[in-house]
Design brief:
Blueprint (H helix, E strand, L loop, with lengths): L39 E6 L2 E6 L8 H11 L5 H9 L9 H5 L56 E4 L1 H4 L4 E6 L6 E7 L16 E5 L4 E6 L3 E9 L15 E8 L5 E7 L1 H5 L7 E5 L7 E4 L5 E3 L14 E3 L4 E7 L3
Length: about 325
C-alpha cells in the first residue's frame, strides 16, 4: 500500500502549457500516515469506482489472496470484495503474487519463483555500484524534490544480468508479454535539463522485450521516476509529448524520507489522453504480504493503483523501508 506526502509523482503538461506540473500523485511514498484498519480503500471494478473499509492490518492472510484473485477475474461484485476483506482468516497465508501470475493469457508465465536467486542480498551487506555513473546532489523539497538522476543523466538506471541482479540494492525483474514484442522505457522524474519533465521523450534506459523474455534493471539509491511499456518499438505520447501509456512509478531509498521506497501503477496519463491503457502489475517479490499494484488491459480491473478518477486519492501502491527492494513487473498484464 502507499502512503501520503510522496516526493515522487509524475504527470503531464496542462494543455498548451510549457511548464510541467504534477497530476495529483505528489502525496505518495512518504511513510507517515499509513493506511490502517478502518480507512477507506478505493478500487475500480469493471469501470466503476467502488470503496470499502480496510480490515487488513498488514499481516498476510488468505483473505488478501482471495480478494486479489476475485478482482483479477473481474467477475466479483464490489459487495463481495468488501465481504472478503471483513472475513476472518482460517488457514495459512498465501501469496497473491503466485495466485494470479499464471492465470493471465496475455502476461508471461514466468514468475518470481523461476529465478529466486535474484531476490537474495549480498551476505556482506555491500551492494554493487558497478555500471552506475556518478551520483548527483539532492535539491529542492516536496513535489520538486530532485534526488539522484545520475551523472551523466540517466546513469542511475542500468540493465544488469540475472546472475548479477542480487548484488544490487534496488532491482526490477521485468516479465515480457507472452505474445508480442514490447518496448520498456525508464526515466527520472527530473529531466536532463533539471526541470520536472523527465517523461517528455527522455530515456534513461530503453529495453526491447521479446515475447516471454525476462530482463533485470538496477537503480542507484535515492532515484525517483517512472517507466512505461507498450507493444511495438515506441511509447505512445500525448499532444504535449509526454508518455501516455500505463506507467510504473518508483521512489527508491529516498534520503529525504528516511530511506523509504515506494511504487505504483498508474493509468492517469493514458486516460487523460484518451489513449489505450496497457496492463501492468508490480509486486514486491520479497514481501510475505505480496504488496502488489496492478491494472489490467483497458483498465477492466484496477487494484491498489491509479486511474484518472483516482488521481486525487492518497495511499495507493506499495512501499517499503527495507534496505533492499526487489520488484517484479509484469507487462501486458490481464
Amino acid at each position: 500500500m502507499q502512503i501520503k506526502n510522496s516526493l515522487l509523482l509524475l504527470t503531464a503538461l496542462t494543455a498548451g502549457s510549457a511548464v510541467a506540473r504534477m497530476h495529483g500523485h505528489e502525496r505518495r511514498h512518504a511513510h507517515q500516515d499509513k493506511r490502517g484498519v478502518g480507512d477507506l480503500v478505493y478500487a475500480t471494478i469493471d469501470g466503476k469506482l467502488v470503496s470499502w473499509i480496510n480490515e487488513w492490518s498488514g499481516q498476510a492472510t488468505p483473505v488478501a489472496a482471495a480478494v486479489e484473485a476475485a478482482v483479477t477475474s473481474v467477475m466479483a461484485e464490489p459487495t463481495a470484495i468488501a465481504a472478503l476483506l471483513a472475513a476472518p482468516s482460517s488457514s495459512s497465508s498465501a501469496s497473491s503474487s503466485s495466485s494470479s501470475s499464471s492465470s493471465s493469457s496475455s502476461s508471461s508465465s514466468s514468475s518470481s519463483s523461476d529465478s529466486s536467486s535474484w531476490t537474495s542480498i549480498p551476505s556482506n551487506g555491500q551492494y554493487s555500484t558497478t555500471g552506475f555513473g556518478g551520483s548527483t546532489t539532492s535539491s529542492s523539497s516536496g513535489i520538486e524534490y530532485a534526488g539522484n538522476v545520475g551523472n551523466p543523466w540517466g546513469s542511475n538506471i542500468i540493465e544488469v544480468a540475472e546472475a548479477a541482479a542480487s548484488q544490487y540494492q534496488y532491482v526490477l525483474r521485468i516479465v515480457g508479454s507472452s505474445t508480442d514484442e514490447w518496448t520498456f522505457t525508464l526515466w527520472n522524474k527530473i529531466g536532463p535539463d533539471g526541470k520536472m519533465d523527465g517523461w517528455y521523450g527522455h530515456s534513461a534506459l530503453t529495453l526491447t522485450l521479446a515475447a516471454g523474455e525476462v530482463k533485470y534493471v538496477a537503480f542507484a539509491a535515492n532515484s525517483q521516476g517512472g517507466w512505461g511499456a507498450a507493444k511495438g518499438s515506441t511509447l505512445p505520447t500525448d499532444q504535449d509529448g509526454g508518455y501516455s501509456c500505463t506507467w510504473g512509478e518508483f521512489d527508491f531509498g529516498n534520503t529525504s524520507n528516511d530511506g523509504w521506497s515506494g511504487w505504483d501503477v498508474s493509468a492517469i496519463q493514458a486516460q487523460a489522453a484518451s489513449q489505450e491503457v496497457q496492463g501492468m502489475r508490480i509486486c514486491e517479490a520479497t514481501s510475505s504480504s505480496s504488496s502488489c499494484s496492478y491494472i489490467t488491459s483497458s483498465a477492466s480491473a484496477v487494484v491498489n493503483a491509479y486511474t484518472y478518477a483516482l488521481r486525487e486519492v492518497d495511499g495507493l501502491g506499495g512501499n517499503s523501508n527495507a534496505e533492499a527492494v526487489r520488484l517484479e513487473v509484469h507487462i501486458d498484464y490481464n
